[in-house]
Amino acid sequence: MDIKHLISQMTLEEKAGLCSGLDFWHTKPVERLGIPATMVSDGPHGLRKQDDAVDHLGMNDSIKAVCFPAACATAASFDEDMIRNMGEAIGQSCQHERLSVVLGPAVNIKRSPLCGRNFEYFSEDPYLTGRMAAAYTKGVQSQDVGVSIKHFAANNQEHRRMSSSSDVDERTLREIYFPGFEIPVKEAKPWTVMCSYNRLNGTFASENKWLLTDVLRGEWGFDGYVMSDWGAVSDRVAGVAAGLDLEMPGSGGINDAKIVAAVREGRLDEAVVDLACERILTIADRYLQSAKPDTPWDKEAQHALSAEIAAQCMVLLKNEGGVLPLDRADKVAFIGEFAEKPRFQGGGSSHINCFKTTSALQAAEGLDVIYARGYDALADRTDDAMIAEAVAAAKKAKVAVVFAGLPDAYESEGYDRTHMRLPDAQNALIEAVAAANANTVVVLHNGSPVELPWIDKVKGVLEVYLGGQAVGLATVKVLYGDVNPSGRLPESFPKKLSDNPSYLFYGGEPRGTEYREGIFVGYRYYDKKEMDVLFPFGYGLSYTTFEFSNLRLSASEIADTDGLTATVTVKNTGSRAGKAVAQLYVRNAEGDVIRPIRELKGFKKVALQPGESKDVTFALDKRSFACWNDVIHDWHVPTGDYAVEVGAHSRDLKLSAPVRVNSTQVIPAKFDMDSIVMDIMKDPRAAAAFKPFMDGVMGALQPSGEESEAAREAISSDMAMAMMQYMPLRSLASFAPDKSVVAQVEKILNALNAE
Ligand code: BGC
């Protein structure tokens, strides 16, 4: 397709029309020119393709599809290859169903446990989020269909999601909220990006030129089209000018007419409309050129894959006395309705109409398992009879496994949670079962952290997150040891909600929400505050044990432009095969910039037979050490002593190796009469230029004559210096008896600033 030529043949009305959807799920055709419509569909962890009644809240039916584990779970795998495989499978289904783009991955940061949509998001950590999103994107797009990375940007709450402004300083955006988009955009070239509903610092994301054009395209090189979230457009003309190419689902022609009028009245450059059309048509053409509707969609095979993936994501949080794995010879009680009807996905636009599901009870067929319902998830209640039945079952069994978690209504797109607790009915059930059977294990189905008030009363806890339609199969495999759990928490579990750094501001006020905790999100905050958490970021147990040793770096001193490799040996020291996750954190140098103690900069999952060791190598680069610098408006590595820390999780980093990193960037320092002594002395150029002047001032300040001894006792020269350090040049100059000093200082300043 000669796209530029086609566009040159289109009328302004046709072009404006192409910039909004035909209907809920299609781009517009231009039949006159032989351009067909293309279809997009949710996403992210399977297909929600609607053939009949349409909506974006997951209310109406969609075709029968396969529900893979949601992002909350897949992030816990810490396994890029695995999520890439999942992406490939989803891409194949898209080809089969003639979909050009799947609407995902969703990469917003889990700022607070309360966000209703956390289950769809990967992590509290930007690096992990970005790596997972890039792998998913590569997987889907290897099948010649596109992804839509969403929701760009700072869409971290559902409360007032279509109007609220997320007020975030630039450094925090760059370090925390952007990398989930930036990494996949740079590494995996997504076909499309979806802008979010919210405003960013007052301007709707759908009208934010800085976001959609300057950063996304100008800095990161995005070359696909940007579509709006469904109904995210407020001022369409401003949106086109800002770089929002496609409005979804469309406004019935109202906004198209506004685009036409704006061009005719000279308020909008037609070339901008042409560019939007070019981007939309380029992607449509890319799909049409490689459409393979005869691609098979083997749903049974994908069901099996979904089970395999779910098993790799489960996080063993507690396993006292080795209560797990279960022994097939033992009688086990499965208690709780989720054993029979698991909660495995969240509500809203990602809701998939599964062609089948496998519950733990079904998967346990043939095993010595008895069942008690324990609670009614839909009505969110239990009663004495259900508790009594559960207790009786628990008493009969060697081990009691309670299947708990958040019911659908607790956690969904469209609204936030109001607390971090499990349902009271479930907590009561767990307490009763734990009192009846000392070997109680809890299996959790949830998309975000919950409080575990009974944690000391149970022997085991297995976090399965929202594990997709085959979650029951995967759970039984992990419980019985067919699969050794290898998931690690992609988020911290705080002890209570009020420990969370966003607690004071989350949800905000009607106008918006200020991200006042800044870069201190998740473990970045808990670590700096030296705060106890229930489970730290990166945590997770295994049925075997691992040892990390022999950390070596390729250099002990580097320039920020050099690369650095870190190698560590990981050994399986237990008696079962298993997978370790080697996690690498960079401990930041101490200095003038306020930074987290440490940040995740590498991870690798390694399969090891008992007794086996493998070397794992990580490649670090400038970004591994950098923070965002507002003066140079770029990434910057403050010169200093960093440490590379490797271990099992963010609070178990037994290996550490120092590395000095020298910055090659010069930050142009500007000084004036208000600059203080301390800052001048820290800058080598300024310190040299001002030395004679400073010596003079210090000399003049020295007490003389008879008072000198007494004065020296009262104020040592160190004390004088300590007090002086905060003085601005103007005060120093005014102390000098010779008033010509002011002119002298100004001369030095001019010379310095001119360099
Ligand atoms: C959601 C998007 C989704 C879209 C289409 C919106 O409400 O925020 O994530 O892709 O609907 O269903």
Q: What does this protein look like?
A:
This protein is an alpha/beta fold. The protein has four domains: 3-288, Alpha-Beta Barrel (TIM Barrel), CATH 3.20.20; 307-491, Rossmann fold, CATH 3.40.50; 546-662, Sandwich (Immunoglobulin-like), CATH 2.60.40.10; 677-754, no CATH class. 32% of the residues lie in helices and 17% in strands. The chain has a six-stranded mixed beta sheet with strand order 9-14-13-12-10-11, with helices on one face. Strand 6 (199-200) and strand 7 (203-204) form a beta hairpin. The longest helix is centred in the middle third of the chain and has 20 residues, at 270-289. The two termini are 54 Å apart. The structure holds beta-D-glucopyranose. The site of beta-D-glucopyranose has 8 residues, from loops. Beta-D-glucopyranose binds at residues 42-43, 56, 103, 150, 229-230, 349.
